[in-house]
Amino acid sequence: MPKTNSPNDGIALICGRANPGLGEEIASFLKLKPTKVQAGQFPDTETHIQIDKSLRGKDVFIIQPTCAPVNERLMELLITIDACKRASARQVTVVAPYYGYGRQDHKSTGREPITAKLVADLLSVAGADRIISVDLHAAAIQGFFNFPMDHLTAVPILAKYLKTLGSKDIVIVAPDAGRTKMAEKYTDILQWPMAIMTKRRKGVGGIDLGSYHVLGDVKGKTAVIIDDVIASGSICKEVEILHKAGAKEVYLSITHPVLVGQSIELLKASAVKKLIVTNTVPVPKEKLKCGKIKVLSIAPLLGKVIYNVHHNKSISSLFLKEHLVFPV
Amino acid sequence: MPKTNSPNDGIALICGRANPGLGEEIASFLKLKPTKVQAGQFPDTETHIQIDKSLRGKDVFIIQPTCAPVNERLMELLITIDACKRASARQVTVVAPYYGYGRQDHKSTGREPITAKLVADLLSVAGADRIISVDLHAAAIQGFFNFPMDHLTAVPILAKYLKTLGSKDIVIVAPDAGRTKMAEKYTDILQWPMAIMTKRRKGVGGIDLGSYHVLGDVKGKTAVIIDDVIASGSICKEVEILHKAGAKEVYLSITHPVLVGQSIELLKASAVKKLIVTNTVPVPKEKLKCGKIKVLSIAPLLGKVIYNVHHNKSISSLFLKEHLVFPV
Amino acid sequence: MPKTNSPNDGIALICGRANPGLGEEIASFLKLKPTKVQAGQFPDTETHIQIDKSLRGKDVFIIQPTCAPVNERLMELLITIDACKRASARQVTVVAPYYGYGRQDHKSTGREPITAKLVADLLSVAGADRIISVDLHAAAIQGFFNFPMDHLTAVPILAKYLKTLGSKDIVIVAPDAGRTKMAEKYTDILQWPMAIMTKRRKGVGGIDLGSYHVLGDVKGKTAVIIDDVIASGSICKEVEILHKAGAKEVYLSITHPVLVGQSIELLKASAVKKLIVTNTVPVPKEKLKCGKIKVLSIAPLLGKVIYNVHHNKSISSLFLKEHLVFPV
Amino acid sequence: MPKTNSPNDGIALICGRANPGLGEEIASFLKLKPTKVQAGQFPDTETHIQIDKSLRGKDVFIIQPTCAPVNERLMELLITIDACKRASARQVTVVAPYYGYGRQDHKSTGREPITAKLVADLLSVAGADRIISVDLHAAAIQGFFNFPMDHLTAVPILAKYLKTLGSKDIVIVAPDAGRTKMAEKYTDILQWPMAIMTKRRKGVGGIDLGSYHVLGDVKGKTAVIIDDVIASGSICKEVEILHKAGAKEVYLSITHPVLVGQSIELLKASAVKKLIVTNTVPVPKEKLKCGKIKVLSIAPLLGKVIYNVHHNKSISSLFLKEHLVFPV
Amino acid sequence: MPKTNSPNDGIALICGRANPGLGEEIASFLKLKPTKVQAGQFPDTETHIQIDKSLRGKDVFIIQPTCAPVNERLMELLITIDACKRASARQVTVVAPYYGYGRQDHKSTGREPITAKLVADLLSVAGADRIISVDLHAAAIQGFFNFPMDHLTAVPILAKYLKTLGSKDIVIVAPDAGRTKMAEKYTDILQWPMAIMTKRRKGVGGIDLGSYHVLGDVKGKTAVIIDDVIASGSICKEVEILHKAGAKEVYLSITHPVLVGQSIELLKASAVKKLIVTNTVPVPKEKLKCGKIKVLSIAPLLGKVIYNVHHNKSISSLFLKEHLVFPV
Amino acid sequence: MPKTNSPNDGIALICGRANPGLGEEIASFLKLKPTKVQAGQFPDTETHIQIDKSLRGKDVFIIQPTCAPVNERLMELLITIDACKRASARQVTVVAPYYGYGRQDHKSTGREPITAKLVADLLSVAGADRIISVDLHAAAIQGFFNFPMDHLTAVPILAKYLKTLGSKDIVIVAPDAGRTKMAEKYTDILQWPMAIMTKRRKGVGGIDLGSYHVLGDVKGKTAVIIDDVIASGSICKEVEILHKAGAKEVYLSITHPVLVGQSIELLKASAVKKLIVTNTVPVPKEKLKCGKIKVLSIAPLLGKVIYNVHHNKSISSLFLKEHLVFPV
User: Fold this and answer.
1) pLDDT in tens, C87-134
2) If we measure between CA atoms, which residue out of D181, F266, C185 comes closest to residue A177?
3) Residues within 8 A of F (CB atoms), E 263-302 only
4) A143 touches chain F (CB under 8 A)
5) Of chain E residues 54-93, which have a CB less than 8 A from chain F?
6) ipTM higher than threshold 0.95
7) Helix, strand, coil % over all residues of chain C, rounded to 5
8) pTM assigned to the model
9) Which of C146, C308, C311, C318 is best to mutate for the B interface (most B CBs within 10 A)?
């Protein structure tokens, strides 16, 4: 475990209001006391930030996934960056394990925004110097920044857990064409077979299930649908399809648990065996009560990366050594 | 009234979700049909924007005060600007009659942000080319932009209405030191006397009322407290103080009605005669039921300014001619 | 067909040395005479550019795919942009139907560049104002630019041709996970079934062919492998695999024919029926002699888009109307 | 007193020609030898700068208030910054205790510049990394910079001296509406009463004195008019008005003594008891001969701030501890 | 002569205080009425600018050589640009026929500024969109700008006059190595021989005259020393040397008459026959009294260029046609 | 010799493919092991770079002259900078002893690029922080950068060698007007006489040799033609002219040996005694076989400068002390 002799050796950790639990875990991992921040909403809904302790010359890490409510989280992050910059921080690193608006990474039709790029520009103009994130929706988002990004993946953490399921005949399922590459990351580690689902196309072949098609063999198998985000829970539809296609049981292995709206109800009602996620995004206790969610902690990974970034140590080599997690 | 021969002559009006009523009024004033926008929230709270019609080569005006909920309104505005820019608009003008975060215009203590400047930078990086706003909290916010700002004032509109009150012995009251300059704008037009309230200082002189002091004569007079914004309604405290100081009746004349929290209840409970505001920020019907609020429309002023900006006509000269409103 | 009354009405077309044939076709489509450019190499290998006619106030379109030799093509493009900017062009649009370095769109391991973003930054700093490109390797490259990009696709052109093949039982094949989305574009138009190939994974399932796997049904069918680029011709390996997997005949449908090295020899030697490409990248006559290549012209598409961009007409609506090509 | 072991430990002090006396005092306070600069005017009036010693990797502080002749001082400052940047200084901090053009902080009518913002942009583009200034005309000028500003105030220094005047019945007077907030800073520290003068308005109330009005009680009292700058000495008119309004004696307490034109003659002729200023701007000996000016040194404040900035120590905490001066 | 139908057709001419006579001549040439500007100095030496008429959408040309006093002229120019930009000018072109600080175009020793580049950056950040200048000290200054520069030369105008001198045996003399290229421009037009002076080198050869050397033949000839600027008049020393070297008579042909200090006295005292200059920089009447100065007007050249820039006409072709002046 | 205790103390040396020999020499001088880079060309001609070891927090020096093939060398340099920046290097210094495109430093006619400036902008946007170069074609190229440039000269190295020639009657010859200043650098050190060649002018005087003219005395002397670059070898024409003008023998002393095309054949065929160059650009062994080329190493100079830059030591003082090489 990395040792930091004093909580004051040039590093400062700021935990935003998006995921205080994760912040505490990371701080504890790093044996650091986070810098306190007075953060709140004025009656007129404006966000107010004031940092309690001097940041002059510090290497500041702000832990703030931009999860729901995304506009509130993002604006708080931008305002905190501005405060750090004006308070003479030496360097400001955004630790946003979940990168909100990541799915709006290109125009899919005319007159749309590319909000994932806009967010990158907002972070840059506010004064961020680098960013750490996990399982971006599209890898090319790295290129939206002109400063360094450490793009991590939670797939090894999730894959390690999947190995403990004990099933013998498992297939990794990409729920749509866009996730095929992520599915390959799983199959690279686990050496399990893969299947791909496609929707809304007629006559595409494979197993035909209404408007869905499954390319690859799932019959009688334990299927693990993988994805980067679960938001409204509409993936429960895919669980049902896989069962119809003959899958024995279905797991979900998803990095970011943005569980909004009726998602918990849908999970409960569905035949899904278990939803395995990380804590990049906080899952409140009442949601955990549904009994179907397993949360794996990303905090040790982020803690190690923050430690290495601050001490100018390689991140690639660290992870290769531990055979655990690969930067992407 | 300015005439625009066709709704399609190179100008495009986009009405954001912050103040659709104002947008409609302006569109009607300009005899223009606003460009439709599909604007909404995804289940995961991310804002989605798509513009219905081509904006190629258009002079686009986006009407969106950044009032409460300010972070939602601001992000929607930024995303809309991004969509317009990528859709090849010739020029994007932000019409934000209320400039949210305007009160965070400087650091009043260490390690604070200057959010009013951050907002200016966000608008610039998103792709805005110019901005039109009304009664900024601090005039120097104009300098936060490197592109042109048309900074308008609603004081002549409000002052014109105050003249109709029929009272003979009226005093304009600045509720604190920061508003003295705005009070002078009223007295310049109305040629009425002025008083200033100060708080939280001991032994400051003038009429002593607990922790408040009134410099200038209010006894037996009709007092009009002026301000740029009313948010939580805490100004009702000042109304009470003025009554204690002998004021006969008290009006509020305030540009931006950001009426949040208990503000309506406080207004009802207070001795205030009437709150006079403009519609830079929408006042929902249920709030108007309290019977104490008079809303004056800023739409004709904004309509004229948009017209002149689009047609490269002077704004200064227009207003001097009409002896009505002065740009600031 | 769009009519331009005079070759001199504010538009200027510059044809770089990368694809003069395409430039001529576009100019002829637009009934425009390209602006002559003295372009050459000094003895010390430095590129020299001088433009023959005044560009003051012109809307300049530079046609230059950044195909092999990519560094020469790109530097010539950058230098031409610089010359146009300093010659007071009103607007400089890069027409790069093939976007070189597009495959280096993210870091796939530590200490790599993101050259696709670097290229975007180089074009921006040189003075480009907008870009038109076709079938980018990753759609998110659109977001690498802060100015408008018109991202077109040749898939409808290629798909239209595929329909004429006359085969009845055709399957569209994505040669790897990254091309699944492009395969869906074909199946959306053609309503044919889809298959996906994966390589280098053990035990992935589907049809096992050495280190390759095919998800989906190809047996006895006509297979069309789709891709964005063919460079060294290594895709002939996939052709062979499909035949082993039972495909009756195999076509290649690929937008950009960057046919380098032994690619023509590999094509000749392989069992591929036909390689269908567009002329975003020039295919020299001696390569065409192999008899297996069908080149479809992208010039009318680019001509219409240039026309509409110059005249501020919608690109989306144009293509929807013609049911032919969709911008992406 | 802060100790710096060697004059060479990474800090470099450059004293411009605007206020060499202040530079020497600060250097002596910091026990540092300033870096010599060959600064002069060529016969054609161009400013020439050459720095004598290497600045590679140094933390450079340039002491140069931009007082009269402001354009000469500002250009010398900009050129010095350029020389430092090109000489590989690690960081360049502008120490401009007086910020020239600060009063042009917004457009007060059409077609004016915002020169205070222009100056901020000039300093930024020249290569400055941070700025230290004292009693800005408008606090929002902080937001004109995208790098950190340490905005200090001399009010505590001036207030401390005012306490020694021995008068019992003193009133702080804001000479116009714009200075009300500065007057509150004095009353916050001194707990004395406040009055406000307004001019050029008819019938404004309070004590009527020609075109002036005084809100608040000054009769029989010692009045201290406060301000940020004294330039041409027109404030002597206000001194006269206060005497007419019954003030027993009148002091002036003003941070920046930009004493130009007839100011000294006006001071001599007026009934002002004493003008108390700091040395942010140099007061030449012949001006001091008038016997009415008390100069307090700002050098220890600036010296401490430079020390803390260089050593990454908090500035807020320092001043809170000493109960002396507050950053703003 | 170009005709402009109305003074109001989208162009606006602003004449700064540096060379009002030149401004008037250009305005008269263009049949335009300049836009009035209230320009002055506040008592504290700050420059104040206000523009009288609306500039919205105008193509603004600001005529202001940055001659002595250079810092005053430059700051006035920057502030005027800022005012134009904030007043919504469509485009701002700086017409600085003399580019002050042009001789500080590179570091000639360590820790010097490159002020000519700094000036370019200041103009850019203030908001200039293009620049027109005459006979820059170094041609590479063009590259200091990222926007278009029209770099003109007065050599054809001066050369045309030299032809009228009637002498038969004339030699063009470069006063130092740096001016050899400018001397070649003269000899290209006039087809006269050339000589070069070098100083401060021992044993360099040629005619040895104390610390000076003349390469080339001047004996018994009429010598014309050419240069870009005459400032303090130290070139009179070279006149003397040429006489010692046997020259029959000596003329000076110099673009920019920045005649400062004792220059007029030196001219009077020297054996120079005539100093031929242009009016890029104003020569006051009392200086002309010395009888040795011939001023040629650059106004028609600048007028034509402004006309062509505004109307998007070629500048190169114009001058080629008239066989008079070449852009460089 | 500077000592670096460990190859790993915060500095990283990257040797590009342009001049590996020079890189090795510098590394050996600095007792450093260069960081390995996987650099290559993909089959489609795209350059690929991957850096072997972590650069986090390192002070990186990339040795890459941008000599022929210049576009390949420059793109490799830009891509390497991008990789370093994204790999979190603390600072990236470009060591380009030969600055390609340096001769395109201004527009010499209309509608040309200023490619030397474009290159500076490309390096800046890619992420370079400083640059070291030798004998730029125009000194003003320093100003094309907004970050520090250490501009070195090889003249003292070449001059020192010239002294060893043993000739008694030597003249330094500038081959054209543009090199006069460089010739003065030689004569400043060597105190030898100077001559200047001009071409393509009729009747310019001096010794007339067809279209060439020689100002200054070369008869019976050893002539040394100096220049910054030798590319195609056209300078052999000037050698011939000097011989016709009576020179006894002719040497060439040229910093950058970009020996392309027929240059070696021309050298062999000409009467030139010896070509003295440095190794800023590599001279392959087969070219050296011609026996007329003497290569002097620039590696110790570059090594010392890199050492001093990394250790924040003065470069000016170092060279003054050694009486050997002066930065310019």
Assistant:
1) 999 999 999 999 999 999 999 888 999 999 999 999 999 999 999 999
2) C185
3) none
4) no
5) none
6) no
7) 35, 25, 45
8) 0.95
9) C146
